[in-house]
Amino acid sequence: MDTLFQDLRYALRMLAKSPGFTAVAAITLALGIGVNTAIFSVVNGTLLRPLPYPAPDRLMFVTIDRGEHGRRFTLSSSDFQTLKEKMRSFESLAAVRPDRVNFKAGGEPERITAMWASADFFAALGVAPRIGRGFSAGEDRPGRPPVAVVSHALWQRALSGDPAAVGRTVTLDGRAFTVVGVMPPGFTFLRSSDVWPILQLDPPLKRPPFFLRLVGRLRPGVGSAQLGAELGALHDVVRREYPDATEPRWAFAAEPLKEYIVGDVRPALLVLLVAVGFVLLIATANVSNLLLSRAATRQKEMALRTALGASRRRLVRQLLTESLMLAVVGGGLGLVAGLWGIDLLRAIAPENFPRATDIGIDRAALAFTSIVALASGILFGLAPALQLSKAPLNETLKQGGRGVTESRGRQRMRGLLVAAQTTLALMLLVGAGLMVRSFQRLQEVDPGFIPDHLMTAQIALPQSRAVDPARRTAFYKELVERVRVLPGVEEASFSDSVPPTGLGILEVLGVEGQEVPAGENHPLIEEILVGTDYFRTLGIPLLSGRPPAASDGADAPPVALVNDTLARRYFPGREAVGKRIRAGGFGPDDPWITIIGVVGDVKNNGLDADRAPAIYVPYEQLPMEGETHLLVRSLLGTEGLVEAVRRQVREIDPGLPLGPVRTGGQLLAAATGRPRFNTLLILLFALVAMLLAAVGIYGVVSYSASQRTHEIGVRLALGARPRDVIALVLGQGMRPVLAGVGAGLLGAFLLTRTMRSLLFGVSATDPLTFALIALFLASVALAACYFPARRATRVDPMIALRAE
């Protein structure tokens, strides 16, 4: 133990003796460890940490698998009630429906997020309110008094944090709900919600519509095979009860709740984790090179200690102690940098990033940082320690005051470290280059509408006014007429969804005269409910036919417009106007709908989604309950326009709040939120890696040139020209760089294939990106080598020779 304390004291003394070296090495390590701590905290909070519910592995999410159309489709009320009554694999099963509602608790009305939930919701999750109670059995039956559980944040903000708020009545969408409980701080499910109102479902008359998400808790001992078999059997029951020839290959599907929540971000987070791992390895190689450079100045010290009886094992232990002390300092600074990094990641993360509230420094993150710091200390300290401890005793002591010449072994080690840095930096830069090109392609996608001077706002009528379709239609038409005459407003309309990510309805399509083969699913199409002037408001071109008119009312024959993709796919070489199609949602018999126009394609379901067939139905013919979007094209600034629109809403209904307002630019930004987040981070890490690699290359070449001062002086004295010296130094410096570029290209070719799911419009092995990145990194390395080479030509031969 005394020896250990002696080593620690000596290590601290040696680090304090070289403050410049210690500061550079510690900051380099802190950078590598900090980004690793931050990204690991994201990966830990999102992927590794269990969901914050009891026995989370038994929580399953139930969806519909529509075969070739994909999984994760929502279920219907009839599906839920059948599963609820007959499932034996679940000990509890609940249905939820995300929504926004108009909330009023005595003050001004506001638009808040809600999650309608059936009675078993809190029991299925295994959580209980902090104050009050959850839902009781049977409270989700129609006709029972409506109740709600509020979030801790809403309780504090709107209900003054008063425990007596339990039992108080609040208004949601014009209906009175009794508050029965307050959830603990931070409780979420799927997304952050302000209130969980009870979901009361009427007995279904048909299978559609599909609007529910189901979560269930498995009984102990139930496996995936048993669950899958029971879901398959019960889907057959539903199919027999509600026969539908359009969906023969549909089936119920289940997956762990955690997989449903985080599955989409897993590939991106793993890529980022690998990226920061590369940054740490490059930082470690840099510090190792610094130690190798410093080792040359300590050869005589080590030789003297050996002459005085110190064993090689003792010297290695002393040098590793110094490295570990340096790693501890770097780890402490890295932890601070990681905390700042987490705050930055939270600030730039997209709104729909899963489990964002679970991201933070916990014991796992602290353990990770400690392990990384200690492993880095051993990794960057071991090679220099072994090299320095085996320096030849006699030769070193004989040199006396002469400059110490670096051994070939140490030169090879430094070259290998430079090559490794270059390899890792190139692989990371290629990945970043692919992500940047992918993001550029995504931004170049034509959304199909004109976002400039466009504003959208969410609005929903109270339940008391939403029951009558005619009243709903009259309200929105009156609001649009009022907004249209506001100063600066060019066009106004309304719709049930807003592109490019606000699609609300997918329907089954039937085309007159085109039969679907037996046993095959009917195609799915996007369905958008639109008001008059919808296409002019969004700037969507009308290719043929006519737009919706005031005459296309509830009593008029069913009509619709289709997009260009649907017209070309199902009516190739023919005029689609006048043809008839069939889609769900037009009544029990799904009457034939006449196509009255063809419009340009619009990205309704994401900028990266393929162009899909779509129909646009006049709102008056299918006025649905729920949220509606007001669309306004205006030359006014958003702030003044929002207040003007809010005044018009209040004049019609003083108790109706205006929901979130977004401009066209914000709609596009939200659609690219996750790709922007991924691209920004990997680009930042790649640039840091390139900077560290360039600094490392500069340091190696600069040190090597200084070690060859005598040789360069002799060459210059014998008539060598400066360009010959530059070529000599550049050749020595670029050899390991070029080897690293070659290895990096091969590694990138193999590694970037794992990024395919993150790329859009660009191949994972895009040759142009590979070539440009290799050329760019080689140029940076050449610049890092050139400056020390240029400085070497300024050596005075007489001074160099005299010093030797």
Give the helices and strands, then pairings.
Elements: H1 2-17, H2 19-48, E1 59-65, E2 75-76, H3 77-86, E3 90-104, E4 110-117, H4 121-125, E5 131-132, E6 147-150, H5 152-158, E7 169-172, E8 175-182, E9 195-197, E10 210-218, H6 224-241, E11 251-256, H7 257-262, H8 266-296, H9 299-307, H10 312-348, H11 363-389, H12 393-398, H13 408-443, E12 454-459, H14 463-466, H15 469-484, E13 489-495, E14 505-511, E15 524-530, H16 534-538, E16 542-545, E17 559-563, H17 564-570, E18 580-583, E19 593-599, E20 614-618, E21 628-634, H18 638-652, E22 661-663, H19 664-671, H20 673-707, H21 709-717, H22 722-751, H23 767-792, H24 797-803
Parallel strand pairs: 6-8, 15-20, 17-19
Antiparallel strand pairs: 1-10, 1-11, 2-10, 3-4, 3-7, 3-10, 5-8, 6-9, 7-8, 12-21, 12-22, 13-21, 14-15, 14-18, 16-19, 17-20, 18-19
